[in-house]
Write a structure and sequence with these properties.
The chain is mostly helical. The chain has one domain. The chain is about 70% helix and about 5% strand. Strands 1-2 form a two-stranded antiparallel sheet. Helix 3 packs antiparallel against helix 9, helix 5 runs antiparallel to helix 8 and helix 7 packs across helix 8. The protein is globular, with a radius of gyration of 19 Å. The relative contact order is 0.15.
Length: about 250
């Protein structure tokens, strides 16, 4: 039994550990992200590290028990099909449309705090997309209900939706944040309900999204990191312009 667990552990998670250890090396010390790649490493060098490492441990645990506990739960969810046709709604909404709508809405109607909030969502979603896509391309895990597709791990719908939920919570409080998290849970569960993802795919996506949503927030709030994007009206007030800045 020990040898089987060890084999599973190393065959499926060497890549994850390589990436997480690489992220950790950029962190100068706890809660200090340094001068370079500070928001990229924010899941492990801010207080978001508690979310990141807990989620990573849970993801690994679920993957190890995939053939027993996880598969049984997955089969029950698919058989009962709680969401029925509503699963397609979670599939559609979870492609990052909420994130994009929030960015656009805050830039146009967010007032004095709109630019900062839009930037928070943009950066969180940007890094979430990069890490999620990178892991998909590196790990090539087969989808549970679609054996010809090899991009199951992690769930992009879960990572995007929980990045959205964490940013909304950080900027608008528990009421709106609670509604955003319920939406993220619905989207994530739809991926299991419709047999697109395993539970550990979804938990990994949740971890990535939450870690970047809160990690970027802690970086900007505690260490006053400058934002990438500025939105300014034109001189005649009939239009606007975007300014992109990045520190090297």
């Amino acid at each position: 039994m020990h040898s089987i667990v060890t084999q599973l552990f190393y065959s499926h998670f060497r890549t994850i550990f390589t990436i997480t250890l690489g992220l950790a090396t950029f962190a100068v010390k706890a809660n200090d992200c340094g001068k370079f790649l500070d928001n990229f490493t924010s899941p492990v060098c801010t207080d978001a590290k508690y979310i990141f490492w807990t989620g990573t441990a849970l993801t690994i645990s679920l993957r190890i028990v995939k053939k027993n506990f996880e598969t049984d739960v997955q089969n029950q969810a698919i058989e009962k099909n709680h969401l029925r046709q509503w699963g397609a709604v979670g599939d559609t909404v979870g492609f990052g449309y909420l994130n994009g709508a929030y960015i656009l809405g805050q830039m146009l109607f967010g007032g004095t705090k709109g630019n900062a909030r839009a930037e928070h969502m943009f950066e969180s979603s940007f890094y979430t997309l990069g890490v999620t896509y990178g892991l998909k391309q590196k790990i090539h895990e087969t989808r549970p209900g679609f054996p010809t597709e090899h991009d199951s791990f992690p769930s992009g719908h879960s990572s995007f939706s929980f990045a959205f939920a964490s940013v909304v919570t950080a900027n608008h409080g528990l009421v709106w944040g609670g509604l955003a998290h319920l939406t993220a849970v619905f989207i994530s569960f739809s991926r299991i309900n419709d047999n697109w993802h395993y539970m550990h795919d979804v938990v990994a996506g949740m971890t990535i999204g939450l870690s970047y949503g809160w990690g970027v927030y802690f970086n900007h709030r505690k260490y006053h990191k400058p934002y990438w994007i500025g939105f300014l009206p034109t001189a005649d007030l009939k239009g606007g312009q975007l300014a992109l800045n990045y520190r090297f």
